[in-house]
Amino acid sequence: MLEVRVRKKFVAVEEIFHEGGPVSPAPLRRAAALAVIHNPFAGSYVAEIAGFMNDLKPLGLEMAQSLISALGGDPKFVQGYGKGAIVGAAGEIEHGALWHVPGGYAMREILGDAKAIVASTKKVGGPGTRLDVPITHINASYVRSHFDAMEVGLADAPRADEILLALVMTTGARVHARVGGLKASEIKGEDGLR
Amino acid sequence: MKANIRKIATFVEETRNEMGRTVDPPTRRAAAVAVIENPCAGKYVEDLSELIAIGEELGELLTLRAVAALGIPATAVESYGKAAAVGENGEIEHAAAILHPKLGAPVRKVLGKGAALIPSSKKRGGLGVGLDVPLGHKDAAFVRSHFDGIEVRINDAPRANEIMVAVAVTDSGRPLARVGGLTKDQIKGEDGLR
With CB atoms counted within 10 Å of each terminal CB, which end of chain B scores lower, N or C? Predict the structure, then answer.
């Protein structure tokens, strides 16, 4: 059991009314929760790291809950999600992979029975590095209107011995979605894909 | 609403630890940013009263959003700041029109007080430009522990014909502030300076 040392937390919310077209009657809301934690494996190769995934679960739940709050307080508002990590210079990309299980678990736990895989991305980078966190529909990965991404980052993170963890949720489709494909209203909801 | 708002973003940052030291209570700050159409873009406009009026309504809207994001009573706000980034088809004077004549009064009305000058910054830039919003104590500009700044950034703004307008508030000064000067418990609150 390793201590999860949080240096800072950050929540960003965007409310999008239009993008040059008709103003949406229900603005799209997108939120990102970030946590900057100490990387307990920074500086050397550590073979056994998987146990840290369990240690991260409470933080994941806290971040997922903060997203629900930022989007209006009800998990029912959430239609899209994604996750990501930026590992500081003294860490390795594999440390970012530690976030897959606790980050995904946390959002599914809070959202109930979300069926689709949580889209994700990760990289190694310095303070100020930006990460485009991919977003897909929570119940069917192929819903084209909900393919989106949210750019996140912090000017002072991650330092070399830190990891920046990110979770993202959205309340709907892109604001002027109109390129066809599977619609949210057509989801079968059996396999997480369609 | 006079302003044509494309999106509103809010950011909340909570610092819990700095250089291995716990920050207790954590320092918290928030910014609200509106991305609006610049009605004066692309041409020289002598009379900027339309932007001045937009500044007034954004002063109230963004202060309410930032305080709500921070989740504290408006009267508990300790420091504040404002800033604007004008897209490439606008002038720096457009930022001045929004920020300086009328934006401040509604900010102070929401907060209940605000004897000090609201520190400000402005720039012209392209999409994703980082905007550093200066922060100072709302009742006494010389409170040294509260000299600070918060960077805001939206990857798709400002477009050429847009302006990003930001208001930032905090419930605290810097984490682990220790460079002396006037402290908040020494504020007289008469002249906005000390």
Answer: N
- Check: CB of residue B2 under 8 Å from CB of residue B97: no
Q: CA-CA distance, B47 to B69, in Å (whole number)? A: 35
For residue A10, what pLDDT band results from cuts at 50, 70 and 90? very high
Write out pLDDT tens, residues B97-151.
999 999 999 999 999 989 999 999 999 999 999 999 999 999 999 999 999 999 9
CA A148 – CA B26 distance, rounded (Å): 33
pLDDT at B42 over 90: yes
* Domain that residue A63 falls in: 6-186
- Answer for the pair B12, B69: CB distance below 8 angstroms, yes or no: yes
- What CATH number has the domain bearing residue A58? 3.30.1330.110
Name the residue among B78, B141, B81, B144 with its Cα closest to residue B113. B78
pLDDT of residue B186: 93
Chain B interface test: which of A13, A71, A154, A174 (most B C-beta within 10 Å):
A13
Domain B5-186: give its CATH superfamily.
Answer: BB2672 (3.30.1330.110)
Do B130 and B157 contact (CB within 8 A), yes or no? no
Mean pLDDT of A135-153: 95
pTM: 0.89
- With beta carbons under 8 A apart, name residues in chain A contacting B18: 7
CA distance linking residue A103 with residue A71, whole number of Å: 18
High-pLDDT (> 90) share of chain A, %: 94
A12: nearest CB among B9, B16, B128: B9
| Beta-strand relationship, A162-170 and A80-87 | antiparallel
